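ok trying this again, last paste got cut off
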Amino acid sequence: MSLIERAGLAALRRLDPEAAHGLALRALGLGLGPRGGPVNTPRLATRIAGLALPNPVGLAAGFDKNAVALHGLARCAFGFVEVGAATPRPQQGNPAPRLYRLSADRAAINRFGFNNAGMEAIARNLAGRPRAGVIGLNLGANKDSADRAADFAAVLRHCAAHLDFATVNVSSPNTERLRDLQGKAALAALLAGVMETNAGLARPLPIFLKISPDLNEAELADVAGVATAAGVAGIIATNTTLDREGLKSASRDEKGGLSGQPLFVKSTRLLARLSTLTPLPLIGVGGVGSAQQAYAKIRAGASAVQLYTALVYGGLSLVNEITTGLDALLRRDGFAGVGDAVGTGRDDWL
């Protein structure tokens, strides 16, 4: 990390967390931030669900909710970027304050509640996306929707022309009863509607399902079975957690989803177990803050990884450090590519 970035992060951490987040997005939109684009080597280049990725390290949804910083993000080292979540109608989300730094835990708690500008505004922003790069959209439902399952299909239909993939997000803990859609029957019906809509598109997309880390063994098996039967392209494991075990920071008891380092072990264990329940490719999310942690997720069963909260503490240069470090770890262990390493350390997490 450069001295300039270190000073910038220190300044941002003196601001309200949500204000700092907005300022970071504006800076990226103005062309500030990293240069050079995705890190790419023969070892890092990989494919998942038909998507050709220059490297397997992606940006998780939530950072750029409204797709306003796509060009700035394209200049970063990410192999792919996911924006959103998007809902059919604009939504303010939950009242502020709703984002908390847990610096002692290198974590964050948020209860945003799918705040976004709505699918029409987001589609306009996506229409101006960079030509290069792999960009996906996290699909959500309005809090007051009479048919939340239909909301996911509506956003997909409206935005698909500008996307490389889409993610069905039924695992955010910040929209009341949203996680109920992870139940076997509800999830099967929801995915059937989304997949039917996707099949009718001029260019169908890989559809991913993002799940909660708080599923028990039976629930995880149900989700794996439903997702496999539905024909989704893969599963993103995991979203934020409601667990607060072991936290030290003053804000540890705030309501919302916990992300960052405390989630790493829990999400990686679930990922490894999930990899034994489905042949679908997996994207590992939760606590990735170093090359070693990205590598651990891959060896636990992930074909790619995503991060977000670690950027609060490590800055966008962290992505370059993780990707170059991951390349070195693959080389050290004699792997010719990412795919060769997937699942080779699964037993360590079971």
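PB: full thing came through this time. The chain has one domain: 3-349.
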